[in-house]
Design a protein that fits this description.
47% helix; 9 strands; 11% strand; elongated; 2 domains; alpha/beta; Rossmann fold; 371 residues
Length: 371
């Protein structure tokens, strides 16, 4: 093949160099735009949050919750995180519990604890939770397994009782509940399965991931935008919910109470069918912090100052169901002198509160053994 004349060769080389320069220019522009966008997102995060993204990311706790097809959210197995001196760990079964097996230990009574974040015990270390303290108080004749998950209420407890007890085979099941059921008070047209409000909130815990996990603020914002686009109702269920005519009053929503009673009755029946001794424990809150005439968030249509009256209705309802179904009800919890120092906020126990709570529960559990 004959070589091209020098003039044509030079023209071809010039065109090639021009194409390369164009590509390099475009790549530089794209890089500059992406870098500028990333920098703008970092500044935007600083403006909105008051802190740099990298500071929040470094200080944030490890992601501990994941989506679950039936419960909405479930604990991620085999993770541990320590922040501010507080250690939170999940075992290989995805429980906030010491490592354990599904099979019962021969010669020991198995106790399972069911509840929401106040049984999961947010804000305190593993060895300070009330299920762990209960284990210490009950001693070697018992093994306590914590089945709690953040946000769980009577709907999740019903599912756990129906579907998990066949594997865990507990002798005793303690249900510490009420707080996560009462937050549906005055939700207009509340569905019987709570899926239009409570269920969406629990699912959002598994889907959203409230802690910044992405390396860059830009990808954090992108995730938030996409989540808001496709899961907006779960991201802010309270924004889409509507209140009844009795919202922001001290009147009790009887429909919500009736659904709560239904769930308790079904749970009690499931326990009987499986030979499990059910124990109901009324929810204890820090009413010293619930005095405002505005809602604090978890109860979107109930003023803080009315929460105590609302919870009293749930306690009375739980006691009524317990008597009708022959279930133990730990009335002593309501007369125990819990004080400000027993809480880290308006309802989650401190280490001191967990110890006090566990003592009352242990006294009832240990008063008679299950065959």
């Amino acid at each position: 093949m004959e070589s091209l004349p020098n003039g044509f060769r030079r023209m071809s080389e010039k065109k090639t160099r021009a194409r390369w320069r164009a590509w390099v220019t475009w790549l530089c522009l794209v890089f500059l735009l992406l870098t500028s966008a990333a920098a703008a997102c970092e500044v935007a995060y600083r403006v909105f949050k008051g802190r740099w993204y990298w500071q929040d990311r470094r200080a944030s706790s490890r992601r501990m919750v994941q989506p679950h097809p039936y419960l909405g959210a479930a604990l991620i197995p085999s993770v541990s995180d320590t922040r501010g001196g507080v250690k939170i760990s999940h075992n290989s079964l995805g429980l906030r519990n010491e490592e354990c097996k599904l099979a019962k230990t021969p010669g020991r009574l198995r106790v399972v604890t069911l509840g929401g974040s106040s049984t999961y015990c947010v804000g305190i270390s593993d060895d300070q939770t009330w299920p762990r303290k209960l284990q210490e108080l009950l001693g070697a004749d018992y093994e306590v397994i914590n089945l709690a998950g953040p946000g769980y209420g009577s709907v999740e407890h019903l599912i756990q009782t129906a579907l998990l007890f066949s594997e865990f085979k507990p002798d005793i099941a303690i249900y510490y509940a009420g707080w996560n059921d009462a937050h549906v008070q005055h939700v207009k047209d509340l569905k019987a399965d709570f899926s239009d409000y409570h269920g969406q909130l629990v699912m959002s815990l598994g889907l959203a991931g409230r802690q910044p996990e992405e390396k860059l603020a830009a990808t954090y914002f992108l995730k938030r935008i996409l989540f808001h686009r496709f899961f907006s109702r779960m991201e802010d269920a309270a924004h889409y919910a509507r209140g009844t005519e009795d919202q922001f009053t001290d009147r009790v929503d009887t429909r919500a109470i009736e659904l709560w009673e239904r769930n308790l009755k079904l749970t009690a029946e499931l326990c009987k069918k499986q030979g499990v001794r059910a124990v109901f424990a009324p929810q204890i809150l820090n009413y010293n912090q619930l005095v405002s005439d505005r809602p604090y968030g978890w109860f979107p249509f109930v003023r803080d100052c009315d929460v105590k009256k609302i919870m009293a209705a749930y306690h009375a309802s739980m006691e009524k169901v317990a008597k009708a179904e022959g279930v133990d009800y730990i009335q002593e919890l309501l007369t125990e002198p819990f004080a400000e120092g027993d809480f880290i906020d308006n309802g989650h126990f401190s280490a001191q509160g967990c110890q006090r709570f566990a003592r009352v529960v242990a006294a009832r559990i240990g008063s008679r053994k299950t065959n």
